[in-house]
Task: structure prediction
Amino acid sequence: VAAALAKEGYQVVVEQGAGIYAGIKDDAFEKAGCQIASRSQVIQTGQVLFSLEPPVRDFGSMKGKILVSWVGRLLDKGKDIVAKATECGMTLIDVTAVPRITIAQKL
Result:
């Protein structure tokens, strides 16, 4: 995905060590056209951020940013995350809201 985005002209910045648990080293991201940076640099330079877990402790530095993450907005914990994101002035997109039935896969 990163290579396709880079090929389309998007700047893709990946947090250093982000792929470690998936067995993907930083140099593989670089070969795909990504830049490697610290978490704070990714947040500072990014307009749209992607995260498996919402980085709630970093929400204060995400004002005006868009975060796509696994939130679970209907659960108590998710409601707290949504409230915190709203308080911090960021846009939160919950991937748990995306339909996962076969017919919706093209979305």
Q: What stands out?
A: The first strand starts at residue 13 and ends at 15.
